[in-house]
Amino acid sequence: MNWLHALLIVLVLVAVPLFAISRKLGWNYLRVTALLCISTVMLLPFVWLVCAAFKDRTVMNEFTFVPPIKTWVGDHVRQEVDGNVTFRPARDFAVPPKPDDIIPGTMNVNNFRKLFEVQQTAQGTVTFWRYIVNSLFLTCTGTVVSLFFCSLGGYTLAKYRFRGRSVLLTFMLASLMVPGVVFMIPNWEIIWRLGWMDSYKGLLIPGAVSVFGMFLFRQAMLDIPTDLIEAGRIDGCGEFRIYFSLVMPLVRPMIGAFCLLSFLGAWNSFIGPQMYLQTQAKLTLPVVLNQYIGVYSQQYGIFLAGTLLAIIPPAILFFALQREFISGLQSGALKQ
Amino acid sequence: MSLTTPQGPAIASVKEINRAGDILKPRGGPNNSYRGPRWAPYIFLSPYFLLTALFFIYPLISAAVLAFYQTNGPSYRKYVGLENFRFILGDPDFHTAILNTLVFACGSVFIQLPLSLALAMMLNARSDRFKSLFRLAIFAPNLVGSVFVGILFMMLFTPRYGLFNQFLQTLVGWGLEQRWLADPSLVMPAIIICTLWMYVGFNMIYFLAALQNVDANLVEAAKIDGAGPASIFWNVTRPAITPVATFVVVTSTIGSFNLYELPFTLLQGSGPNNSGLFAVTYLYNYFNSQDLGTAAAVGWVLAGMIFAVSLIQIFLSGTTRRDR
Questions:
Q1: Which of A47, A100, A220, B294 could disulfide-pair with A254, CB 3.0 to 4.6 Å?
Q2: How far apart (Å, rounded) are the C-alpha atoms in residues A106 and A67?
Q3: Helix axes B238-257, B113-123, angle to 10 degrees
């Protein structure tokens, strides 16, 4: 990785004269350079992940990013000379290879192929598609349901005056302080008593209303002029209709921010599904992929291929909602 | 949306005229809120009331009761008084877990948050074409779940072959052979580095939002009066971002106390010599061995500590002082 040294030297060589010419320009240049370096460092693990997901099992550890291009395609034989790994084409007839030594190209999609292989379980056969569908279903349902309840609750807290409102707000703030670990055991017991073990009810229903989400929406909705709601009432809107077709369109950025946060949380949640789900065909992506790394099997390549696939949905959503996410957080979440 | 620009509301009936008259009456109340029908707020909040009763209040009471029992799974229980608390408070493993958790919490408050703030201030400069690109790059790790991050970093920390080790070797000429996850003194730095990568972007977004509250005119005025960057930061920027900073400090402390998934996957257990044993890992171990009473007691001790720490932080920040 001597390219890194070279890059640093070049950056310093360019920065010093610039700084000498103009102090302001120099600072700005330093700032952008630093941001560039930091962004590169933050993205390096992703680059590594993409490379590793396509690397053959046999060369997983040998190369930092990718093996030499000429070994990517075609059968090769792996050989170690003085601790350095090299490859020669398998068609080298001077030294006939043993069949076990042949690698079908150092870069291939075998990890993905193995990931999508049919698994035999006690309850029948399962493919990886099933887990993707499970995760998507759980996450989307959970996000939509909690979006509805949290925005409705937040609207009520922001725009209605009713007996006990300030007590309720204080109670909610205090309940945010109680850490989730306290509820882990009793909730498990309740789910067990209700007979919701091994069903999605146990994951969806307790998470349907979150106090944090209600506060996010409350903060955003405090800014909506009360006159507007009064006008809606005079025009004959019902209470629910005021919320749904008058207030909700005005907090679109917050809806985006909430959806993204809620989606990320549900998509990557591990402890809940791990505790409440038992049937293999019902499991979600994080739990299933974690099974590839355990005491008995350490199939890193397959795990990384699955991780790469699991990043795609949140990434798409983030790209779609990026603007709303930032402005949503700026618009309401953080005003005191 | 047509309602935002009404050319005069269409009033049809006497009933509605009366209602409109009602609205014109001055309304008391500090925050501009609206009194609809009596039933509406209660109906709208009923899902919250129901779920809170079932999944907040009942578990809270149940956890309080459970902490005084010795259990073996959900069906067997025996009253033991304060024995569970006495046991965990005297358990050296619990002390290790709490110490590790506190060290980690300090790490995330004193290392991660200043870095997030620095990044936010670097990004916040005006006229920057690449702002959204940098923001995206720094936020990107949040798209990966902590389970995935744990195993990913387990591989990045591999001695000799891991990306992180090679990176360190290239940059500072040290660290190629370091066994980050097997050396007790390096486990905590490894976890802090890992969470730094993961969460620095998220906190940066919060600080970026907070920096919008800084009054640009005030900054200009301070500059004209000859204030240096440090003085501007302390006297103009700091007061403007204090509420958000308090929020971020409190949430990231609570988050550190709740850390579980990352060490669980990164270390596949509690690390060498329990150097990666955290409070929730400790709790989960008792949960796994069906000793729910002890686990509930641990939960209560933790809750007490988090509550105390959060209150101290909020008090120190001075955001509770309304009158000045």
A1: A220
A2: 7
A3: 140
